[in-house]
Write a structure and sequence with these properties.
Number of strands: 11
CATH topology of the largest domain: Rossmann fold
CATH superfamily of the largest domain: Crotonobetainyl-coa:carnitine coa-transferase, domain 1
Strand content: 5-15%
Order of helices and strands: EHEHEHEHHEHHHEHHEEHHHHEHHEEHH
Shape: elongated
Distance between the termini: 30 Å
Structural class: alpha/beta
Radius of gyration: 26 Å
CATH class of the largest domain: Alpha Beta
């Protein structure tokens, strides 16, 4: 494996579940020596079982150190590791590192250049600062749930941990910015990533609508809340085989953004009589009859394969795309296949064997990212890490394993 962009950067990773591990996975993919600190006791917590796909997915490109921070010896080793780290990152609720004797003043005294990244749900300060959060609650509190459902249904929101991924990416960018600031100024610093605020920052036009117009944005489903455009939605197509030998629904998204595109879509559909209504010549007229148009377009798409509809529309200059499933992305998508986006990790994983991975979607010409180390089992690298970072001999490591400091 050749040089990578972050080769030589040491990251001590106290994160768990998804937001933090996703951020440190990015840093590991970029070449940083990310050491994930865990214990057997915590390994069965939410998203923390090293034998489960959830953990395996978010913790590649890292080394695993088993360290019991509830012991004096474990806390002592933790401080020694922090003294040699470029970055210390955690996503606990506020105060956990303090209880382990790793408060910022202590860390700063041991390592003036260290960058300390805290990724709590609400950040430090404020009446909610001690909240422990998960994706559904963060989505709801930040306003994302209210905007991502369908009209009249405030109980429908984002099904997956969107905000965790967003917070992880913010944390990775924050680390890079802090490293650059340290290179210029020569000092480390603390970075707070409030996951709640991360979600609010993605509301964009909604906040503008509120501030400028006093409007109350609501969920709009597939319809555009601020543009006059129709047809604009997802339409059913012929089903395709699923992974279990049955059939799965297949859909295509069509977004007609101009009158010229509407005329092109009519041609693709064979100029049906219903589409020649004079009221449909303008976007305003089509929006007024959107439900009627959607039903008619659905009848046309339902008899065709989604890929065929997409390609015919695109060839005519009409924006369209298949609503791709996991099977589409991993087995059928020609662009991802050509780019090698889905690949496998280096080495077989003891629990899952060959470990599928999605490549980091970045390409570096001078320091390419080629190959991804598989996710490590709990404590698999304890001896190697303590030797590399602290110069600890194997017999000393064995003694600490025996007394419960490690493990």
């Amino acid at each position: 494996m050749g040089a990578r962009p972050l080769d030589g950067i040491r990251v001590l990773d106290f994160t768990h579940v998804l937001a933090g591990p996703f951020g440190t996975r990015i840093l590991g993919d970029l070449g940083a020596d990310v050491v994930k600190v865990a214990t057997a006791e915590r390994a069965m917590g939410a998203g923390a079982d090293p034998n489960e796909p959830y953990y395996i997915a978010w913790n590649r490109s890292k080394r695993s150190l088993a360290l019991n921070m509830e012991t004096d010896g474990g806390r002592s080793i933790g401080l020694e590791l922090c003294a040699r780290a470029d970055v210390v990152i955690e996503n606990f609720s506020p105060g956990v590192l303090d209880r382990w004797g790793l408060s910022e003043p202590v860390l700063r005294g041991a390592n003036p250049g260290v960058i300390v990244v805290s990724m709590s749900g609400m950040g430090v300060g404020g009446p909610w600062s001690n909240f422990v959060t998960f994706a559904p609650t963060i989505h709801a509190l930040s306003g994302l749930t209210a905007l991502t459902g369908v009209p009249g249904r405030d109980d429908i929101g984002i099904g997956f941990s969107y905000n965790d991924h967003a917070a992880g990416m913010h944390a990775a960018v924050a680390v890079l910015a802090a490293l650059e600031a340290r290179r210029r100024e020569g000092v480390g610093q603390r970075v707070e990533v409030a996951q709640f605020e991360t979600g609010v920052s993605f509301l964009g036009p909604t906040l503008l609508d509120l501030v400028v117009n006093g409007g109350k944005a609501e969920a709009s489903g597939n319809r555009l809340p601020y543009d006059v455009a129709a047809p604009h939605g997802c339409y059913p197509c012929l089903p395709l085989p699923d992974a279990e030998g049955g059939e799965e629904e297949h859909w295509v998204a069509i977004a007609v953004m101009s009158d010229a595109q509407w005329r092109s879509l009519r041609e693709v559909m064979g100029e049906p009589a219903w589409a020649r209504a004079p009221a449909y010549e303008t976007a305003a007229g089509r929006v007024a009859a959107m439900e009627t148009i959607d039903r008619a377009v659905s009848v046309w798409t339902a008899a065709q394969a989604a890929v065929d509809v997409m390609e015919r529309c695109q060839a005519a200059g009409v924006p369209a795309g298949v609503v791709q499933t996991g099977i589409d992305l991993t087995r059928r998508d020609p662009q991802l296949r050509a780019s090698g986006y889905f690949t496998t990790a280096e080495g077989e994983h003891p629990a899952v064997g060959v470990q599928p991975v999605d490549r980091l979607p970045l390409h570096f010409s001078a320091t390419p990212i080629e190959g991804y180390p598989r996710t490590r089992m709990l404590g698999e690298d304890t001896t190697a890490v303590l030797l590399d970072w602290l110069g600890m001999a194997a017999d000393e490591v064995a003694a600490k394993e025996a007394d419960g400091t490690l493990g």
